Amino acid sequence: MIKTVATTPFADQKPGTSGLRKKVPVFQQPRYVENFVQSVFDSLSGFEGQALVVGGDGRYFNREAIQIVIRLAAANGFGQVIVGQGGILSTPAASNLIRQRKAFGGIILSASHNPGGPDGDFGIKYNAGNGGPAPEKITDAVFARTKTITEYKTVLGPDVDLDRLGTLHVGSMRLEIVDPVTDYLALMETLFDFGAIRAMFAGGFRMTFDAMSAVTGPYATKILEEVLGAGAGTVINGTPLPDFGGHHPDPNLVHAKVIYDLAMSADAPDFCAASDGDGDRNLIIGRGMFVTPSDSLAVLAANAHLAPGYASGIVGIARSMPTSRAADRVAEKRGIGCYETPTGWKFFGNLLDAGKATICGEESAGTGSNHVREKDGLWAVLLWLNILAARRQSVVDIMRDHWATYGRNYYARHDYEEVPAEGANTLVTLLRDKLPGLPGRQFGTLTVAEADDFAYHDPIDGSDSAHQGLRVMFTDGSRIVYRLSGTGTAGATLRVYIETFEPGPERLDRDTGEALTALIDLSRSLADIEKHTGRREPSVIT
Ligand code: VG1
Ligand code: CO
Q1: Predicted confidence band at 49 (pLDDT cuts at 50, 70, 90)?
Q2: Span from the CA of 16 to the centroid of ligand 2 (angstroms)
C-alpha cells in the first residue's frame, strides 16, 4: 500500500564532496532520511520499473536507513531493489553491481572513513547508472529539491529480513538480497593474475591487511585468505562493526598506526595494507616503507600492464588537483593523457566513461580504474600484489626504481581539523585576495611562479566547477595547495597539501619532513593559519 506523507524541508541537506554526511542523530530525526531520498528520486526521471542497488558500510543506522530506502523505492515505482546481505556493500562493490546489473543507479549508505556508532557519522550518496557518484548537476538538483519538498511516498509494511539471501517482494517491487562479495570477486578475477599471486603466497610471501572493523573484512577474508591462500590471520579486524570497534576507519598513518608499526617492526611482513569504512580507500606500506598515495598512484599506473586486465596498457591517468604530480611524470614519459580534476571521485566519471583515463587517484588514499566508477581499496591492494608477483622485488626496491626513473615528489598533507568555520572561511577569502600579488615574489629560496583558485572545465560535458582550492606554485616545481574539506561534519577542516620535486639521481632518499621544511613553514605564514584557526600545528599529517 503506497502512502503519501506530508513533510517540510530540512535546511541542511546539501551534498558535499561525497554525498550527504552528518552526525547519526541528525539522520535519526523523523523524516530526515525520507526527505533526502525522496529528493534524490524527485531529481531523477525514467527509473520506473528499473533496478536500484542499495547497500552500506555496516555502520550504526545502516539497517534502519536501508529499510527506509527500500520502502521509498517501492512506492516511487522502482521495479527492483538489489541489496547486499545484511545491508553490506562496499562502495566499489556497489558500483560494480550497478554496472553488472545495468541498474538505474544506487544508494550507498556510508560516511566512509568518518567514525561510526550512535554519536558518529552517517551518510547517503546517490550513484548514477555508470556506477559513479552523481555529478554536480544532479547533486545540485537534489539540494534544490530538499529545500522545497512537501511530501514523500512510502509503502506500509513490516521491515524486510536483510540477512536471508533470495528474492521477495515489497509491494509490487522485487527485492533481491545478494551476497556482497560474489560479483566483486568475479570482477577481480578478470583483472589480476590470481595464479601468480597465489604462487607468491605459497612461496612464503606474507602480508597483513587491516580491515579496520569496517566493510572490507568479508571481501578481504574471502579474496586474500581463502581464494589467494594468504593464510588465516592475514586479515585483521575483519568483522564489520557498527562503531568500527570505536576506531576511526581512516587508513592513514594516525588511525592505522598499528599496521604502520607492524610494517616498521623487525618481524614485518612483506606487505601491509588497510582500507577505510566503506572500502574505497587503501593504505600501502611495504616492509620498512610507507608509500604515499600519490606515489602509489604513479607506481600502479607505471606497472599496470603487468596485470592481465591492463595488459594492453593504459590510455590516460587522472588525478585530483591536490594529488602530487608524480603520476604526471609517468603519463609524460609514456606519452599518454594526463588529467587534473577537482577533489572527489565524481569528477573522474566522465573521463572514465569517455575512455580518456584508465587509472585515477587521489592523495587521500583513493585509487581506482575503469573497472568501476569509484575508488577501490582492495583493487589497489590486488594490483600491488600482482605487480609484486610479476616483478619479484620488494616494495622498497620498486619505489627506489620508480624514483630513479621518474624523480621523486616529496609530499605531505597537513589537516587542521574541526577549526572554527568562520576563521577558516576568512583565511580562504584573504588568501584568495592575495593570490594575484604572489607571482614573482620570493620567500627564501622559493620564488612563486603562479598562484590561482583552481577551476575545472570538464572536457567531456563542458561543465565548470570553480573555487576548488587555492594553488601556489613555485619555479622549482614545488607547490602548496589550500582547500576546505567537504566531508567533515563538525566545524571546518583546512587541508594544506605540500609538495616538492626532486629529479634525482641524488637526494631521492631524504626524509619527507626535512625535504619539505621550508615549504611547511611558508604554508603556515602565507595563510596566517595560526591567526585564523588558533592552531600552530596540524592535527593530522599524512
Ligand atoms: C575527502 C578527500 C577526497 C575524497 C573524499 C571522499 O574529501 O580529500 O579526496 O574524495 O574525502 O572520500 P574532503 O572534501 O574532506 O577533502 V571517501 O573515502 O569519504 O568516499
Ligand atoms: Co571511503
Answers
A1: very high
A2: 13
